[in-house]
Amino acid sequence: MHELAITQALLDVAIRHAADARATRVTEIHVVIGDLASTVDDCVIFYWGEISRGTICEGARIRFERVPARMRCDDCSTEFGLTGGLTPCTGCGGVRLRVLAGDECRLESLTVQTPAQEGTP
Amino acid sequence: MTESARTAEPARTTETVIPVVERILSANDRVAGANRQRLDASRVLTLNVMASPGAGKTSVILHTLRALAGRARMAVVEGDTAPVTIDSEKVAALGVPVVQVNTGGACHLDAEMMSNAFDQLPLDRVDLVIVENVGNLICPAGFKLGTHVNVLIASLPEGDDKPWKYPKMYRGVDVLLVNKTDLAPYVDFDMTNFRRGVEALNPGVVTFPVSCRTGDGLGAWTDWLAAKLPR
Hints:
Chain A has helices spanning about 5-20, 40-50; strands spanning about 25-35, 60-65, 70-75, 80, 95-100, 105-115. Chain A is an alpha+beta fold. In chain A, strand 1, helix 2 and strand 2 (about 60-65) form a beta-alpha-beta unit.
């Protein structure tokens, strides 16, 4: 249920950057979410539709870029991806692991409309 | 925006992509950073106690308050999803200042809630603040509070697979209490599998097997904590 708090934070960041860019409308937001970030896309989309209403982000599409979890074994240096839950090293069965990727939870970019300058098409 | 404005729009606007690359929870992180500065300025040690519901958070906190009474000036922040004051009343009964934070259904505390809670505590006259987070092994792991020590309480009846199922929580903790050791004869808890999961996520994390029912192991925990208190 933390998706509501995450979506609210996402909206706040998007509105701030859209204002900085003097945008009149946000049409798409690109978010990068790692598989270890415990965030459900559908849940974020649902809350986004509700809380972005009446803001500059109303109607903006969310493009999710999912980052698979990747681990590295400190014992044998094997790097392996996680498809489900956490597992021991696929090379040696060891458990001295470090996370290489999968923790991401960031707003990567916004696609915005801005008033056209004089002379531009 | 009116319909006519919307249809007229494409002729007068350009569409561009602007790079942002900002952590979604950056605002929470900033407030957490401000909380930490304030706590450090007041020389207060703060614990963020996390666990699943029923693991023994309140029992550990009450034991800790009794054990350190006279050795430290303490206060507690009780996080609950509903305005239920059962835990706060137990703390207040010990004569310890307590602030209750109702999250209004949300499953975790965040830095802003903590900032408001700290406003209500006499931080300059306290050595230790214990924050009891909402019982949940997922959401509290994502929201920094600005506290100093992340404490996780696991318990035997939950099962030995929890580190494997809640990796984010187990990765972020500084000290682990394994509670309800008195139930070992009655539940199938494989300590070896549990420890392997913990080791995978958080090698060498300080761990105390304890029983709030019998008191076993709690002395080692409170001694460890007392040594961390500001002098």
